[in-house]
Design goal:
With 315 residues, this protein is mainly α. The protein has helices at 10-15, 24-49, 59-90, 106-130, 149-181, 184-197, 207-227, 231-247, 271-274, 284-314; strands at 134-136, 265-267. It contains ten helices and two strands. Strands 1-2 form a two-stranded antiparallel ribbon.
């Protein structure tokens, strides 16, 4: 465990190039200011976009574009921009130190993470299907099935920005700043807990869903440390949300999927297993998959850091 929490991890070594790192309390306050600022700026920008985003007579496309732009792209790009400003002009370190080093095969890592996120959601769905906890609805509309593919892929663009914004904010900036200023255990656990607290306003929230989001945060932290960047976890976070909502038809952290769904799975089993109206993240199936992910990434990260320590000792 000591090796796992070593600042020898490349993710934290890269981050340790700034001039100032706020303590965990100040970092949390900055995070709150960023989110509030992005919220109010989003209201202003979206009001200017009201008459621009109706681009066709197709209701599905219009819904997908409006949701992708107003709910995902605009607020999340603002968060990314504000994080970049804090990083460059307050901490005085390069944007690449947020785990965004362009020399680390970013495309390959992103795609690998994207595929893994899809597999994780697919595994949860498959388990729930074979245990008769969810069934595939046969009802079809213009918002379901292959007819909805255009809207589904439009919304994917929004999820790409959304997934990246949360990972840049929590793992790229908050976790690395706290890790450099204090220590890695505090960075991992505080970023995971705060990440979960940011979802307190979501609909149909339960205690288990909060626990699962904390576990996702731990998994994302270990995955980033293992991957030595946040490219992979950005891809995973994107496909996790997109596959859960627009592909499988489940709620995403309590939010009904917008812009069309490929499959329309309905929960028939216990909410404790399926997650109910919060989506898969509110159920024990996701708990199991995430815990397996935490264990695997923790073991691999520990092994990686042990090897780094040995190599550094003999170099």
């Amino acid at each position: 465990m000591k090796a796992m929490f070593s600042k020898n991890s490349l993710l934290f070594q890269q981050a340790n190039k700034g001039k100032y790192y706020p303590n965990v309390i100040v970092s949390t306050l900055i995070l709150i200011i960023i989110i509030i600022s992005a919220h109010f700026l989003t209201i202003i920008i979206n009001s200017l976009l009201d008459n621009i985003l109706t681009i066709t007579n197709n209701a599905l496309i219009n819904d997908a574009v409006n949701y992708a732009v107003k709910a995902l792209v605009v607020p999340c790009l603002l968060i990314i921009l504000l994080i970049f400003i804090i990083t460059k002009y307050i901490e005085k370190r390069n944007i690449s130190t947020l785990g965004l080093n362009k020399h680390q095969k970013p495309f390959k890592k992103y795609i690998r993470g994207f595929v893994l996120g899809f597999i994780m959601i697919g595994t949860c769905t498959f388990f729930l299907v074979i245990t008769n906890n969810v069934v595939l609805s046969k009802a079809t509309t213009s918002y379901t099935g292959t007819k909805a593919l255009a809207g589904i892929f439009i919304v994917l663009i929004g999820w790409i920005i959304q997934g990246a914004s949360e990972e840049i904010m929590m793992r790229g900036w908050f976790m690395t700043s706290v890790g450099v200023r204090h220590n890695i255990p505090l960075a991992i656990f505080s970023s995971s807990i705060i990440f979960a607290l940011l979802h307190l306003g979501n609909s149909n929230l339960t205690l288990l869903s909060i626990v699962n989001i904390v576990i996702f945060g731990l998994f994302a932290a270990f995955f980033s440390i293992l991957d030595k960047s946040i490219w992979g976890i950005c891809g995973l976070h994107t496909s996790w949300n997109w596959a859960q909502g627009n592909i499988m038809g489940f709620e995403v952290s309590g939010n009904i999927p917008v812009g069309g769904i490929l499959f329309d799975f309905k929960c028939t089993g216990s909410d404790l297993i399926t997650g109910g109206n919060f989506g898969l993240e509110g159920g024990l199936t996701v708990t199991a998959v995430l815990l397996i992910g935490v264990i695997i990434t923790y073991i691999l990260s520990t092994k990686q850091n042990n090897n780094n320590r040995i190599n550094n000792y003999y170099s």
